[in-house]
Structures are given as structure tokens and as C-alpha cells.
């Protein structure tokens, strides 16, 4: 089954080329994109099953034997990330098609959007499967180049300004990563991850610390950890809703994945474990305090995105099987839930005319279905039992208690405080946007208010008919958001098997030998 390994990268790239040839034929472009991403989900699920049974699957690209050539490795961690990312990108694509069709494609021009979106998917998949540091860099650059285009769709002044900030920060992190790659190669003579296991272990501690610090700095910027996260709240909320959703769900998680992979495989038990725990605590608390202070739904969600990255770093910093498995579980949970909430925010903006909390109200009466689509993932994000967010946080808390160190206990307290403040921030959005009386400037509401004033008498507000609400919210946008809500609920139902997969992946990462032996069956040269 190793021939399946490169397909999550190859199929989106071929699909991007085909959609470029189909410029001017939007229906054909849509079908190509949907077919490619559906096939990617199927291939990723197959790789997850096979890697669980047979161990890591390895492909030497072009027939060049490792370490001379590029290798793609699908172990349980990579395959699990492929499955959830492919499922999320498929749902977001359906959402964007619904939005583009309803808006006449002003926000998502089909001639540009589909090939760029597929290139972004290929970059994400390549980063997950990469078996050497330089190919990981290539994966980052592929997804970042595509993200530059997607972030500035529509070419408004706000988006160009936000895109400029994003480009500058991304280029800085890429430059740091490239310098780190050069230093690693100068010190070890290789960039193959499996070969680096032994060669990095043989280096003096000070040199290993410098290399580890450089890689952590580069990946920390990409993952938006504090204090390297100031760029994110100003960049993501300006993009179209589907673009913001896929960025929030995937791009920062690729950085988290890179941290997990390098910290466990290349620098196990490193001297930066305490630093990771401190950064995790600051990311949690500072991020959620920023969320509490926001008056816009998208910016609030952007700060919760930053905050919850801290939970993942918490598990990585503990360097235990339970902590790492809980972190992997939480990554899967957060990709799904954060993407769902940003899609729901796009629906809020469409139905309410704004995402500013002081201009919203009454959405629970105007669109009960939209209220449900926001309410369920919001509770999940806040960690309310029995949702997957609660289970992931419970695993992290248990791992922190088992560790028993002062920093671990600080993270336990910080995690619980962050969860409570997340609930407060989400409850504030619910009260202002969904529960209170409708704002006069909202669509349909303004007409009712003006009619009441024209008649010279106060008239009670009557919510529009379901048919009117349905005309505002296209079915594809509702359906794709609902599909992700169901996927988020499914994570709770299958939490046991998912935790088993996460635990197996964590054990393999900590042992390191399954990965190395899969790439070099006869021993690393």
C-alpha cells in the first residue's frame, strides 16, 4: 500500500493544474476540486488504517534511496493529521462553493480560488508526510504561497494590509527555518529526519540546543505561540469566511505538528521542555484575555485560536506518553471545532450583516438553525462535558497531575482558568449576538423597525419566515457547517478509539525506533 503515500500531495497538485486549464468553466472546476478532495479523504483514511496495522509506510520519491532522495513517511501521526485536514478542507470547499454561488463569486473568484485552494491542500499534506527537513520547508512554502493569494482575495485595502503583515511575518519565519536547516546540515551532513536521530544525539549539548532553539523559533511563529502571535488576529479576520476558517483550522496546526515531530524525534528530553511549558502557559492566558476583550466575533475567535495552541504545547512540553497523546487528540479536536466556529461566524456575518457584537442580536430567533450550529461547537471549544474538548483537556490535566512538577501544576491551573474564560467569552457572544433583542440595523429587522415608525405606533418585532431565512443562508453553506458540527460530535462518540490511536502515535514518537526502522530497515547509514 506504499503507493498510496504520495497521493495526498500529487492529487491536489494535478487537480490544481486541471482547474487552471478549466478557467471559464466554473462548474467543471467545482467538480474537479470536489472529486480530488473526496479522493484525498479516502486515501488518507486508508493510510491511517494501514499505518496502524503495518507501521509507518515509506516511499522514496523518484526511486532515490534515502538519505540521498526525498522520503515521504505516513506513520500514525501523519496519517491522522491527513484524515482530519482532508475532511476539513473538503467541508470548507463546499462552504466556499455555496458562498461563491450566492455572491456571484466576488469573494471567491473561481478562476483563482480552486487551483490555489488545491495547492494549499497539497502543501499541508506534504508537510505532514515529509521525511526530511528541507521537504518540510518546501511544504511550508507551498502552503504559504497559496495562502498569500487566498488571504488577499477581493483586493480590498484591509485585506492587502493584512496580507502584507502576514507575508512579512511568514517570510521571517521561513528565513529562520532556512537558516536552521543550513545549520543542521553543517553540523550533521544530512537533513533526513530518521538519519538525524543518531547524528543529533552525537552532537555536543550546546550545539543541539542552538539547533533546537532555531527550529522552535521558526515553528513557534508559524504556530502563533505567545509572544510570536501578534500577527494572527490582524490577518485572519479580514479574509473571506472560508479562507479564514481553513487558515484557523490548519495553518497554525502545521506549525504545531512540526514542533511535535521535531521535539520527539530529533530532540527527546531536550533542555527546552521547561521553556515549552512556560510558553504554553503564557499562550493560554494571554490569548484568552485578548479574546475576552474583543467586541468582534472573528477577532474573538482568533484570540481563542491562539490561546488553545497553549494546550497542545502543554502536552508536548510534558514529554510523557499521556501528555503527548492528549496533545495529539486536542490537535484533532481543535482543527475541527475552530474551523466550524469560523464557518459559523461567516454565517453570522451573512445573516446579521456584521460580526461586531454591538451590531448583532436576536439571531436565535432569526435563524434557530444558525444558533444550533454555533452553540454546539462553542460548548465543545469551552470544554463542557461530555464533548471532545472536555476529554482532551481532561487528558492534559491528568498528565500534568501525574507529572507533579511546579510548572506542570501551573499549567493545570492555567488550563482550567483558560477553559473558564473561554466559556465566558463564548457566553458573551451568545448573549449579545443570539439572545438579546435584534439590533435595528440588522437585515429584516431594520425594515420592521422602519415600518413600525411609519405607522406611528409601536409594533412588536416578528421574525421572518423560515423561507426568508433560508434565502439568506445558502444550503451549501449551512450543510457544510452542519457536517463539521456532526464531525465534532463524532469525535466525542469515537473518543475512545481516537485516544487509542493518539496513544499509539505518541508511543511510537517517544520510542523513535519505528520511524527510523521504517525508513532504514537495515539501519541508518
Automatic annotation (TrEMBL):
Source organism superkingdom: Bacteria
Transmembrane segments: 6-24, 31-49, 77-98, 110-129, 135-154, 166-187, 207-232, 239-260, 272-293, 300-321, 327-348, 369-387, 407-427, 476-499
InterPro entries xref list: CPA3_Na-H_Antiporter_D, NADH_UbQ_OxRdtase, ND/Mrp_TM
Keyword flag Mitochondrion: no
Topology with respect to the bilayer: Multi-pass membrane protein
Pfam families in the record: Proton_antipo_M
Domain NADH:quinone oxidoreductase/Mrp antiporter transmembrane intervals: 130-418
Subcellular location: Cell membrane; Membrane
Keywords: Cell membrane, Membrane, Transmembrane, Transmembrane helix
PANTHER family per record: NA(+)_H(+) ANTIPORTER SUBUNIT D1, NADH DEHYDROGENASE
Family: Belongs to the CPA3 antiporters (TC 2.A.63) subunit D family.
Protein name, UniProt field: Na+/H+ antiporter subunit D
Source organism per UniProt: Micromonospora reichwaldensis
Amino acid at each position: 500500500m506504499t503507493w498510496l503515500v504520495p497521493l495526498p500531495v500529487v492529487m491536489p497538485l494535478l487537480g490544481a493544474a486541471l482547474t487552471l486549464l478549466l478557467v471559464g468553466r466554473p462548474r467543471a472546476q467545482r467538480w474537479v476540486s470536489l472529486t480530488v478532495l473526496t479522493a484525498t479523504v479516502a486515501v488518507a483514511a486508508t493510510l491511517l488504517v494501514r499505518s496502524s496495522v503495518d507501521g509507518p509506510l515509506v516511499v522514496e520519491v523518484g526511486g532515490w534511496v534515502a538519505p540521498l532522495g526525498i522520503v515521504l513517511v505516513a506513520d500514525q501521526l501523519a496519517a491522522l493529521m491527513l484524515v482530519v485536514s482532508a475532511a476539513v478542507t473538503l467541508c470548507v470547499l463546499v462552504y466556499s462553493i455555496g458562498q461563491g454561488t450566492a455572491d456571484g463569486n466576488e469573494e471567491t473568484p473561481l478562476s483563482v480560488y480552486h487551483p490555489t485552494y488545491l495547492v494549499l491542500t497539497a502543501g499541508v499534506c506534504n508537510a505532514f508526510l515529509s521525511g526530511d527537513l528541507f521537504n518540510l520547508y518546501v511544504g511550508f512554502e507551498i502552503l504559504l504561497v497559496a495562502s498569500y493569494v487566498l488571504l488577499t482575495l477581493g483586493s480590498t485595502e484591509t485585506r492587502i494590509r493584512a496580507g502584507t503583515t502576514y507575508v512579512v511575518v511568514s517570510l521571517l519565519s521561513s528565513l529562520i527555518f532556512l537558516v536552521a536547516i543550513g545549520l543542521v546540515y553543517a553540523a550533521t551532513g544530512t537533513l533526513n529526519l530518521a538519519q538525524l536521530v543518531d547524528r543529533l544525539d552525537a552532537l555536543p549539548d550546546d550545539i543541539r540546543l542552538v539547533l533546537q532553539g532555531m527550529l522552535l523559533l521558526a515553528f513557534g511563529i508559524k504556530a502563533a505561540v505567545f509572544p510570536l502571535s501578534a500577527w494572527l488576529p490582524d490577518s485572519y479576520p479580514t479574509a473571506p469566511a472560508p479562507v479564514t476558517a481553513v487558515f484557523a483550522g490548519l495553518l497554525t496546526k502545521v506549525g504545531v505538528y512540526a514542533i511535535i515531530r521535531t521535539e520527539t524525534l530529533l530532540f527527546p528530553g531536550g533542555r527546552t521542555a521547561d521553556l515549552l511549558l512556560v510558553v504554553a502557559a503564557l499562550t493560554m492566558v494571554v490569548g484568552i484575555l485578548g479574546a475576552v476583550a474583543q467586541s468582534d466575533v472573528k477577532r474573538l475567535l482568533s484570540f481563542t485560536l491562539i490561546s488553545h495552541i497553549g494546550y497542545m504545547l502543554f502536552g508536548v512540553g510534558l514529554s510523557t506518553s499521556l501528555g503527548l497523546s492528549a496533545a495529539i487528540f486536542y490537535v484533532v479536536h481543535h482543527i475541527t471545532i475552530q474551523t466550524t466556529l469560523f464557518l459559523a461566524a461567516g454565517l453570522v456575518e451573512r445573516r446579521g450583516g456584521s460580526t461586531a457584537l454591538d451590531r448583532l442580536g436576536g439571531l436565535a430567533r432569526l435563524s434557530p438553525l444558525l444558533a444550533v450550529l454555533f452553540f454546539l461547537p462553542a460548548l465543545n471549544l469551552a470544554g463542557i462535558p461530555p464533548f471532545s474538548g472536555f476529554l482532551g483537556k481532561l487528558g492534559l490535566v491528568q498528565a500534568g497531575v501525574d507529572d507533579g512538577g511546579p510548572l506542570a501544576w501551573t499549567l493545570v491551573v492555567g488550563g482550567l482558568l483558560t477553559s473558564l474564560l473561554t466559556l465566558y467569552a463564548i457566553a458573551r457572544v451568545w448573549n449579545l449576538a443570539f439572545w438579546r433583542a435584534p439590533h435595528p440595523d440588522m437585515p429584516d429587522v431594520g425594515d420592521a423597525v422602519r415600518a413600525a415608525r411609519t405607522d406611528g405606533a409601536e409594533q412588536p418585532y416578528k421574525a421572518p419566515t423560515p423561507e426568508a431565512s433560508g434565502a439568506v443562508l445558502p444550503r451549501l453553506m449551512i450543510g457544510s457547517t452542519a457536517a463539521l458540527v456532526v464531525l465534532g460530535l463524532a469525535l466525542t462518540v469515537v473518543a475512545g478509539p481516537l485516544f487509542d490511536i493518539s496513544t499509539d502515535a505518541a508511543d511510537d514518537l517517544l520510542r523513535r525506533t519505528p520511524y527510523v526502522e521504517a525508513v532504514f530497515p537495515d539501519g541508518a547509514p
